[in-house]
Specification:
The protein is an alpha+beta fold. The protein is 28% helix and 39% strand. The longest helix is centred in the last third of the chain and has 32 residues. It is globular and about 50 Å long.
Length: 129
């Protein structure tokens, strides 16, 4: 059996979960407190986002709405780690097991969606050449 070799730079990654870079086309919306937010990236355990007004508290309610096989709305507690209105980094706290499974399903779905989009883009580029 062949062994898997993990490059050192991956072993030193401090993140607990893989983050997916987001685009405006993605079927995911987030509200931080009472503000609509623009999602920068997302993982099973956290989020990076921007908002119009500064957030004064370190712990805020968040609402994540997305569509996979149906529309889901998760009401989450969000702990701000650092940042400013241009890019807050936060983690989800006290998530239920069901919410964690949904987040895992969402991240995997987004990864597949991005791969399909990139493949389609490459196909369209090759047909126009």
């Amino acid at each position: 059996m062949a062994s898997i070799i993990i490059p050192e730079e991956l072993e030193q990654n401090q993140r607990r979960a893989v983050r997916v870079e987001m685009t405006a086309k993605d079927p995911v919306r987030f509200a931080a407190g009472r503000q609509k937010a623009t999602i920068i990236n997302l993982s099973e355990s956290g989020i990076a986002f921007s908002v119009a007004e500064p957030i004064a508290h370190k712990a805020i309610p968040g609402v994540l709405k997305f569509k996979i096989d149906q529309v889901y709305t998760l009401k989450l507690q969000v702990q701000i780690i650092n940042g400013d209105p241009r890019c807050y980094r936060a983690e989800f706290v006290d998530m239920s097991a069901q919410d964690m499974r949904l987040m895992s399903k969402l991240v995997l779905g987004l990864q597949k969606l991005h791969i399909r989009r990139e493949k389609l883009k490459r196909q369209q580029e090759s047909t126009t050449e």
